Fold:
Amino acid sequence: MLRKLLVDLKMRGSLEAMETISRIDGKDEFAIALLQAEHDFRHQKILTQRINKAGFPIDKEWREIDPKLNPGIDFKGVQKLGNGEFVRKKENLCLMGNQGTGKSHSLISLGRQLCREGLSVKFYTACALANALEEAKDQHKLSKLMKSLAKPSLLVIDELGFVPFSENGARLLFDVFATRYERGSIAISTNLSFDKWIQIFGSIELTAALVDRFTHNANIFIYEGQSVRLLNAKHKKTKGEVI
Structure:
């Protein structure tokens, strides 16, 4: 009877735990264990959906970063933002510095951490976002995309500056920054200092306005150090491994 009720109520977590908790003595303890199993199952399901919806390109966690390789980078400071307070305050985040130092890894790890805190995250590379915006405009779906970009608690834009945008793409990306200004947080990684963002956006006026909006209430971390990818490649070569 109990199993049928659980099936009818679609309590899959409780069903899967039945064999384990059936050995528990006491009605109250059994009921608590049954409900706890369902709670844990649903919580994990929601978390998995939230992470999948974020669109992270790969699974990365903080424990995979070796801070000893680049002791000058404040990885712990970025990780502390995972409590979500900066997102709740609608502040921005900028990881700026050399390639290969862990900026993208940090953004993904932080994003996953925030998902576990119950916050919504959406991840794009800057190039992919610019392309999506231009495509949406061509297909007369820009309004729909802009609304979706305004929804997540944190919008992540990775690799800003690696590829220059078209004039149209730059202006559309500016609109994204403007739409989320003081309404929702943006986290970016870039290999260019702010004074060089004109190389990305072209227009002096557009760049100045964008930087002004973004840096207002922004947390900025400088990633200066050695390329971890290059260090790993050299290590493999030394050991005679195929790279």
Notes: The first helix runs from residue 2 to 8. The mean pLDDT is 88. The chain has twelve helices and five strands. The radius of gyration is 22 Å.
